[in-house]
Amino acid sequence: MEKLVRGLRHFQTDYFSKHQDLFQQLSLGQHPRVLFITCSDSRIDPNLITDADPGELFVIRNAGNIIPPYGATNGGEGAAIEYAVQALGIKDIIVCGHSHCGAMKGLLKLDKLEEEMPLVYEWLKEAEATRRLVKENYSNLTGEDLLSITIAENVLTQIENLRTYPVIHSKLRQGKLHLSAWVYHIENGKVFAYDAVRHEYVAPSSPLEPLDPEELLPNSIGHPASWLSPEQAHRIYRGSYHHQTLKS
Amino acid sequence: MEKLVRGLRHFQTDYFSKHQDLFQQLSLGQHPRVLFITCSDSRIDPNLITDADPGELFVIRNAGNIIPPYGATNGGEGAAIEYAVQALGIKDIIVCGHSHCGAMKGLLKLDKLEEEMPLVYEWLKEAEATRRLVKENYSNLTGEDLLSITIAENVLTQIENLRTYPVIHSKLRQGKLHLSAWVYHIENGKVFAYDAVRHEYVAPSSPLEPLDPEELLPNSIGHPASWLSPEQAHRIYRGSYHHQTLKS
Amino acid sequence: MEKLVRGLRHFQTDYFSKHQDLFQQLSLGQHPRVLFITCSDSRIDPNLITDADPGELFVIRNAGNIIPPYGATNGGEGAAIEYAVQALGIKDIIVCGHSHCGAMKGLLKLDKLEEEMPLVYEWLKEAEATRRLVKENYSNLTGEDLLSITIAENVLTQIENLRTYPVIHSKLRQGKLHLSAWVYHIENGKVFAYDAVRHEYVAPSSPLEPLDPEELLPNSIGHPASWLSPEQAHRIYRGSYHHQTLKS
Amino acid sequence: MEKLVRGLRHFQTDYFSKHQDLFQQLSLGQHPRVLFITCSDSRIDPNLITDADPGELFVIRNAGNIIPPYGATNGGEGAAIEYAVQALGIKDIIVCGHSHCGAMKGLLKLDKLEEEMPLVYEWLKEAEATRRLVKENYSNLTGEDLLSITIAENVLTQIENLRTYPVIHSKLRQGKLHLSAWVYHIENGKVFAYDAVRHEYVAPSSPLEPLDPEELLPNSIGHPASWLSPEQAHRIYRGSYHHQTLKS
């Protein structure tokens, strides 16, 4: 706590004094471009890992970066989403999971939490779609592999849940909103983004800036810049979005 | 009521006596292949319009063929879905809306319902994602055109909501479940199915049975066997599933 | 699925083409006379077993033909009831259970469902009134006998629950609404209706059409055309409906 | 979005590469000392304003830094609180509001939000305790003054709400947990903390580090380093915190 108070003064005398114009401008209003949804985990600093200035990221943080389906809960998640899209006109939403996520570890041993942490238990049941998918589709995995795939699939679950919010549902139809699924790796500082065409988590790209060619070139394993093993990626590929098209 | 009682006897002496073997077999257990979700509207008879025998369709019927997102309500919808997929192993789910739908008419004048029919009002708020999308994307439409597009979009909303149910979320990943969006037209007896590739409602096909070539040939308007006008279809096309892929 | 698509065409070329006038008329509006509440079970086809044409039955279907008491849930059941009675002016409501009901089997082994089918588990808890009544009043029964009485009592439970809906409560007082309790037997195609005077499930009659005299004559057991044994019928009499009046 | 992707790379090549040891250590587990609850507002960067490294702050962010009383909602707030205190053993919780808060502006014109942003409307009703206190105690204020006092009082409301969580309630009794109320001023980069002895928001201090003597000396207004006017500060004193002890 003492360190934080010293930090407040350091911020004022250092960063703030150098960027007074920015803060003066920000005091007139915020115009963030991105809604960044991530975990409460202390090891994630959204602005740091994206090198974003104050004013750029509208942020929701809870345990496990979980966004329950529309109407399923009445906590702060829905209001922040609605405010971001409706009032601020934000057009990019990123759900960012992370390696070594304690919430996802909890999801994999859910029964043990009911007694000791009932609120965590109830909240993680909002990620039942993740738990069930992992249980039924990755029964061969254990330990770190199981945790990694749970983290990866959970972000995709939240993307699906986001689609059920009226304000998002409507903007998606108009092509005025983009949803991105990211996973941040604490140990190497890398972020991987879900590529819905390749059905893999890969180094993120952007329409206006081509991927680094080196990252596009297949490596010896054949999955360039991919995070999961080819086998894991294949599972996601076949499972996750292959059958997204409606059979008519 | 008298007519129904007479009908019961007619069923016994006519249909039942001719199909005793079927009913004998059905008394041992049900093995339906399809979960058919449709409106309570009296003008829809799921078995009649699909020429399905008893035992083929597991049926959910409510006002407006609405399936709230997972966790949003605690009515019978979720249980029937879970039972169909988990206990019965059903692999095909059809959400079937219909023309002249009273529930969708109500959705378009929602405010007027709060006083007179509070339960209908509350229930239709579960279709807020449809209402908002229509309001924001089809502001130029009125009357029958507006109703038609609302009916069509509402079925697609429910398809998205279905994806949030854990049991569906998981099976979709495994490619063991297919979701279909249908609209039944009372006035001409036709059913149109959403084609996620063409982004239109068209005459339904099946993998094993090719579409009637005549239906595949473009007509003078250029939209063969399509239900909505080219303009409307184009709106759905651009709006609905164009941007379904995740931007990474 | 392919069969269904073929069925759609068969419906159009056969039934629809022969009844175009009916469907043309129906496209102008629905005027059903009966709200028919039954199970999602695939073996039940309400229109088939009552020989009803399209337009005659407004239908609610969920797992176990359960209608929770007013206010207990926020699913689609209440809205469909309100719409049927208030907007459509329906004056007859039938709750129709059926033999071999999977939901009622589940109710008799509820604890085993919590893990595997949590939504079914939660939904069946809405039929706790049935479960408790059966547990406390039919402790001597097992197997098929227990299931039969559970199915029969459950329909009566739902009749009581229906009475709690404001729109029904009010119309009942005015004598403008009639509630009927039916059980459909898959194996013999028969429907039995609860007779509140005789306190038994018997072949249904109607005020305008006298019962078949043969059915009115006591048989050797003394319970003509009755479904349950005299002992079971007696239990229902004492247990649940002494003070209630049902139109059958 | 392109800027963020470039930012990810900048973070890796710059900050991460310089602090690899820190991240390597963090990948083994998190041991944050503080639960930092603040608004989703893009202009707040908790780590920046406290000069905190990754791993130091466990963060909850939602619209308006609102923590509903225990049991009032089932969103992510409760779970993150429970996890922070129970699983991570955190002993300091800070609720940090901020100037120019859009959520608090919304709270002051709540009725206008119901139609356009229903989820925001519902969420802000969780801050009704703030709204009512302000309405009944600061009826003479308008404009910026009213907004400032609302922001200040709202943080204190959330401190009271936090006390209702079982895990916090118990630790407070044991003296093992401290709650702090902060308000961050975007325009000047300063943070003010509620001082429960002086009943004012003042520059925060810490037990281990004496306050800057200059800040302790009364200024001409008589309220050194205080944010609100003496009148406002006095109102807070009488209105909300006479009998409470907060560590600042």
Shape type of chain A:
globular
Order of helices and strands of chain A: HHEHEHEHHHHHHEEEHH
* Total domain units of chain A: 1
Please give the alpha-carbon distance between the first and last residues of chain A. Answer: 60 Å
Oligomer: homotetramer
CATH architecture name of chain A: 3-Layer(aba) Sandwich
Q: Radius of gyration of chain A over alpha carbons? A: 19 Å
Q: Indicate the structural class of chain A.
A: alpha/beta
Sheet-strand content of chain A, in percent, reads 5-15%
- Supply the CATH class of chain A: Alpha Beta
- Strand tally of chain A is 6
**Main β-sheet of chain A, in a few words?**
6 strands, mixed
Give an overview of the whole structure.
- The structure is a homotetramer of 248-residue chains.
- By secondary structure, chain A is of the alpha/beta class.
- Chain A has one domain (29-241): Carbonic anhydrase (Beta-carbonic Anhydrase, Chain A, 3-Layer(aba) Sandwich), CATH 3.40.1050.10.
- Chain A is built from twelve helices and six strands.
- Chain A has helices spanning 2-18, 20-26, 46-49, 76-87, 102-107, 113-116, 118-124, 128-137, 143-162, 166-173, 213-216, 230-241; strands at residues 34-39, 57-62, 92-98, 178-184, 191-195, 200-202.
- Chain A has a six-stranded mixed β-sheet with strand order 2-1-3-4-5-6.
- In chain A, helix 8 (128-137) crosses helix 9.
- The longest helix of chain A is centred in the middle third of the chain and has 20 residues, at 143-162.
- Chains B and C meet through helix 1, helix 2, helix 3, strand 2 and helix 4 of B and helix 1, helix 2, helix 3, strand 2 and helix 4 of C.
